[in-house]
């Protein structure tokens, strides 16, 4: 296997932070993200090429900022570049969850309905606070979302790297909360590093997968043209 799945322990996490600490972007009261104009990474200064939000129905699921060494509005030039490219993805809705988390929240909702009958309102409020969701009926399931995104943006030709797509989807298994940061780093022509809240989770060495992930956001068949345009706004 050419990928490495990391379980990050305290020592390695501390080392990662001290060597290449990642920027945090603020989420506003209206669930927008203030992306920093510049970030420092691996001794390089990258500029914000553009930032935008993925909106599903009424929910702002996440926002993305694309950082490049040299700003560009040419998606092919960016995708096939060997310079460092970074996409920071920030969760902006509690409705964007894995199936496991959705099931857990729905189970809690059913318990709340029983508690309502017995008048245990304080327990209900505590459960809602812990779940961060009042009405669990408008979820977007992360695995299904990314499977479709990879397929549609890559003309359904994903057989050569489908196992990596499955690994990628697994990084969203734990509960997402507003403000969670994911970082996708694209090194050279085939190395893609995936972080969650500054912890390295995946390091995939596969050229087609790297191109495919970039296609999800800025490719010719990217599923959200508005987000694509925003990322290429320079």
TrEMBL record:
GO molecular function: intramolecular lyase activity
Record flagged with keyword Ligase: no
Domain Chalcone isomerase: 32-115, 144-232
UniProt keyword annotations, A-Z: Isomerase, Signal
SUPFAM superfamilies according to UniProt: Chalcone isomerase
The keyword Isomerase is assigned to this record: yes
Matches recorded under Pfam families: Chalcone_3
Alphabetized InterPro entries for the sequence: Chalcone_isomerase, Chalcone_isomerase_sf
Record's signal peptide: 1-21
Protein name: Chalcone isomerase family protein
Species of origin: Flammeovirga yaeyamensis
């Amino acid at each position: 296997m050419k990928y490495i799945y990391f379980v990050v322990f305290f020592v390695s996490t501390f080392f990662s932070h001290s060597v290449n600490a990642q920027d945090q972007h603020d989420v506003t009261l209206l669930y927008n993200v203030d992306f920093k104009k510049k970030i420092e990474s691996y001794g390089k200064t990258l500029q914000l090429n553009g930032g935008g939000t993925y909106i599903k129905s009424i929910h702002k699921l996440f926002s993305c900022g694309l950082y490049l060494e040299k700003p560009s509005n040419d998606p092919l030039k960016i995708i096939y570049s060997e310079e460092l490219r970074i996409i920071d993805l920030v969760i902006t809705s509690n409705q964007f969850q894995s199936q496991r988390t959705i099931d857990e929240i729905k189970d809690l909702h059913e318990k709340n309905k029983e508690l309502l009958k017995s008048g245990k309102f304080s327990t209900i409020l505590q459960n809602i606070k812990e779940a961060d969701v009042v009405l669990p009926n408008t979820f977007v399931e992360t695995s299904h979302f990314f499977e479709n995104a990879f397929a549609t943006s890559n003309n359904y030709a994903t057989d050569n790297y489908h196992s990596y797509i499955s690994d990628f989807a697994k990084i969203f298994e734990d509960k997402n909360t507003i403000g969670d940061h994911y970082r996708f780093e694209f090194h050279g022509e085939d190395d893609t590093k995936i972080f969650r809240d500054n912890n390295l989770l995946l390091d995939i060495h596969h050229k087609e997968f790297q191109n495919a992930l970039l296609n999800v956001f800025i490719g010719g068949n990217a599923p959200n043209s508005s987000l694509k345009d925003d990322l290429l706004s320079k």
